[in-house]
């Protein structure tokens, strides 16, 4: 009998070391594109499209300055006639023979992403918590069918939903409004919220509420004062998943918004410099856009599995 | 610290609460479910019904005042006999099958390795998970940069490893390579997803089964075939289900990475749908296509879930 006999239940030292080596290699290769995005944000436009690609370069914040401003190229004579630049970013732009025209649209787009993300998350979690409680605690007629119906709304390709939604929003005057996008994302997220929260609620023992009701609480009081505090972790995890969805969503955003309500994902590909996409600025926007998600991922680590499988797999 | 009296007051049901609290459980159940169901009816079901109605017409959304004519099943007949649609379905199938196959192999392999619980495994797991949380659209946009010949990181990395000229191939511009570039980016993004589900499956297997297998002198390979694989199977099938639905609907990443090109080599079903609906404005025709796609996903998912339940029961 070879010595590898207990390999699965209790891996040998060699097998652990080799596993750690392979996994670390994969992780480093997989994270390289993200690191490259981060680095590109600190390159100058010529450095970003240098051949061969530059690993070592002089860091610059030009990408970030370009992201937040609109600029125009001017003749040396005109630049000489202008008063000296006041701020460091004006000096930077002036050194490229350009003049700042004003702020770019990135801040309003970022604000849109936040407003639509938080608005739809709040509504989806409120509706989802209520429905999940009802499905978890009461005998709802046709509960399984209703739950499946709620899930099946997620099987529609977003473009297929977008056709009638586009017509509907046009009729109601909701095209390119934050309210319209909040309602739409709430509807998409509510299915996730119901399924996830039902799982979390199922795990809270009924005895808690029953004891509270014996003490004179009504059903609603028991819900607000006993069940909700117990479900805080689950609600928070669900909220983060809804927020990530709304934050990342592209298909609806690109088809139904164009200006006032446009979010970051459809905006980022259109950050254009001279002669095509301004890659350092795109990379800067991408970095700023990814940072909240990275933080949330680390926060969510324990509930990630549940969230991505609609609560079908729990650890 | 609150005084005893305050706590007593806080615990006494208020009048308003009593009036609502007097509701039966049934009333509460309906009160709680109604908002979600109403919202889904308004934003999912009503549009679905509208799509069905539109699919029988020649309506064009860019000409709202033109008379609407009912054309019966013409749209459906046109779609099912349209070689472009069949081409799009083939492109979708190619994308879905290959991306899932690669994600399964890599994801399951990584999960097996991570399950050896070496030192630092949870740190590396978190790193590996990052790509899947990001916005596919923004990722797709950035991969166009990484995949550029010459200046892109990918071509240079391949050149470094194999010694071929980095400008000798174009991942996005070449009709042979473009379908593989969308598969590659999808695999990069979603391997962690499959890995995470497989990991949960592996961790659900109690150690004593392996111990029993060892008492019976089963070889590691035999243990894998007779214990690990059958017990992880329901998890694998679940991962396949979710990935298949998601990739069948795939729009954002592909739209930004290749937008269906070059030509129509990477034109997956959702891209065709977008072109018909929002570029050619054939609303009736695209509604019919949307219904066909939805019925396909819905039907396939239903059959699959039945199979999944059978595997689970075993």
Q: What does the secondary structure layout of this molecule look like, with pairings?
A:
The complex is a heterodimer of chains A (315) and B (314).
Chain A: H1 13-40, H2 45-48, H3 62-68, E1 69-73, H4 76-81, H5 88-95, E2 98-103, H6 106-137, H7 143-152, H8 158-172, H9 178-202, H10 206-214, H11 219-230, H12 232-248, H13 251-256, H14 264-267, E3 272-273, E4 276-277, H15 279-300, H16 304-308
Antiparallel strand pairs in A: 1-2, 3-4
Chain B: H1 4-11, H2 15-21, H3 25-54, H4 74-80, H5 83-114, H6 121-133, H7 136-146, H8 153-162, H9 178-203, H10 207-215, H11 220-248, H12 252-257, H13 269-279, H14 283-313
Helix pairs in contact in B: 3-14, 4-14, 5-9, 5-11, 6-9, 9-11, 11-14, 13-14
What does this structure look like?
The complex is a heterodimer of chains A (315) and B (314). Chain A is mainly alpha-helical. Among the domains of chain A are: 68-104, no CATH class; 107-265 and 290-308, MetI-like (MetI-like fold, Orthogonal Bundle), CATH 1.10.3720.10. Chain A is 67% helix and 5% strand. Chain A has 16 helices and four strands. Chain A has helices at residues 13-40, 45-48, 62-68, 76-81, 88-95, 106-137, 143-152, 158-172, 178-202, 206-214, 219-230, 232-248, 251-256, 264-267, 279-300, 304-308, and strands at residues 69-73, 98-103, 272-273, 276-277. In chain A, the strands form two sheets. A two-stranded antiparallel sheet of chain A has the order 1-2. A two-stranded antiparallel sheet of chain A has the order 3-4. In chain A, strand 3 (272-273) and strand 4 (276-277) form a beta hairpin. In chain A, helix 3 packs across helix 15 (279-300) and helix 9 (178-202) runs antiparallel to helix 12. The longest helix of chain A is centred in the middle third of the chain and has 32 residues, at 106-137. With 314 residues, chain B is mainly α. Chain B has two domains: 15-54, no CATH class; 74-313, MetI-like (MetI-like fold). Chain B is built from 14 helices and no strands. The longest helix of chain B has 32 residues, at 83-114. The radius of gyration of chain B is 26 Å and the shape is globular. Chain B starts with a helix and ends with a helix. The relative contact order of chain B is 0.12. Residues 13-19 of chain B have low confidence and may be disordered. Classes of the chains: A mainly alpha (315), B mainly alpha (314). Chains A and B meet through helix 1, helix 6, helix 7, helix 8 and helix 9 of A and helix 2, helix 3, helix 5, helix 6 and helix 7 of B.
């Amino acid at each position: 009998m070879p010595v590898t006999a207990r390999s699965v239940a209790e891996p040998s030292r060699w097998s652990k070391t080799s596993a750690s080596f392979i996994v670390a290699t994969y992780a480093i290769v997989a994270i390289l594109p993200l690191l490259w995005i981060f680095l590109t944000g600190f390159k100058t436009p010529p450095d970003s499209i240098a051949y061969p690609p530059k690993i070592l370069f002089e860091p610059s914040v030009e990408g970030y300055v370009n992201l937040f401003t609109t600029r125009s190229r001017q003749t040396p004579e005109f630049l000489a006639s202008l008063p000296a630049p006041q701020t460091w970013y004006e000096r930077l732009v002036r050194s490229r023979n350009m003049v700042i025209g004003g702020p770019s649209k990135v801040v309003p787009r970022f604000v849109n992403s936040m407003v639509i993300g938080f608005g739809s998350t709040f509504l989806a979690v409120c509706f989802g918590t209520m429905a999940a409680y009802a499905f978890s605690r009461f005998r709802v007629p046709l509960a399984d069918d209703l739950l499946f119906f709620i899930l099946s709304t997620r099987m529609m390709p977003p473009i297929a939903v977008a056709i009638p939604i586009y017509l509907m929003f046009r009729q109601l005057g909701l095209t390119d409004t934050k309210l319209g996008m909040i309602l739409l994302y709430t509807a998409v997220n509510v299915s996730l919220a119901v399924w996830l929260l039902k799982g979390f609620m199922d795990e809270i023992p009924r005895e808690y509420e029953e004891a509270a009701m014996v003490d004179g609480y009504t059903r609603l009081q028991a819900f607000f004062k006993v069940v909700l505090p117990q479900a805080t972790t689950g609600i928070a995890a669900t909220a983060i998943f809804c927020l990530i969805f709304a934050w990342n969503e592209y298909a609806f955003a690109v088809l139904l918004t164009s200006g006032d309500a446009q979010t970051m994902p459809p905006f980022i590909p259109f950050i254009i410099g001279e002669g095509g996409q301004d890659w350092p600025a795109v990379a800067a926007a991408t970095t700023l856009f990814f940072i909240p998600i990275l933080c949330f991922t680390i926060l969510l680590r324990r509930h990630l599995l549940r969230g991505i499988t609609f609560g079908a797999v729990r650890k | 610290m609150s005084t005893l009296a305050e706590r007593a007051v806080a615990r006494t049901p208020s009048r308003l609460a009593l009036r609502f609290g007097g509701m039966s459980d049934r009333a509460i159940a309906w009160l709680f479910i109604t908002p979600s169901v109403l919202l889904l009816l308004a934003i999912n079901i009503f549009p679905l019904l509208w799509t069905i109605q539109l699919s029988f017409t020649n309506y064009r959304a860019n000409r709202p005042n033109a008379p609407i004519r009912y054309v019966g099943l013409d749209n459906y007949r046109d779609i099912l006999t349209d070689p472009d649609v069949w081409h799009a379905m083939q492109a979708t199938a190619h994308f879905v099958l290959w991306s899932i196959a690669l994600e399964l192999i890599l994801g399951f392999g990584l999960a097996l390795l991570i399950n050896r619980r070496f030192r630092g495994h949870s740190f590396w797991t978190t790193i590996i998970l990052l790509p899947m949380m990001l916005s596919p659209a923004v990722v797709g946009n950035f991969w166009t940069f990484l995949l550029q010949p010459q200046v892109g990181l990918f071509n240079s990395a391949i050149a470094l490893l194999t010694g071929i000229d980095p400008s000798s191939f174009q991942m996005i511009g070449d009709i042979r390579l473009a379908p593989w570039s969308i598969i590659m980016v999808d695999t990069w993004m979603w391997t962690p997803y499959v890995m995470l589900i497989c990991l949960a499956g592996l961790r659900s297997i109690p150690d004593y089964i392996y111990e029993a297998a060892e008492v019976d002198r089963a070889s590691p390979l035999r243990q894998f075939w007779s214990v690990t694989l059958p017990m992880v199977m329901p998890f694998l099938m679940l991962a396949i289900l979710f990935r298949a639905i998601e990739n069948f609907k795939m729009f954002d990443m592909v739209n930004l990475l290749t937008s269906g090109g070059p030509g129509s080599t990477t034109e997956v079903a959702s891209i065709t749908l977008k072109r018909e609906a929002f570029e050619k404005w054939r609303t009736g025709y695209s509604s019919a296509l949307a219904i066909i796609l939805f019925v396909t996903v819905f039907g396939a998912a239903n059959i699959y879930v039945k199979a999944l339940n059978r595997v689970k029961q075993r």
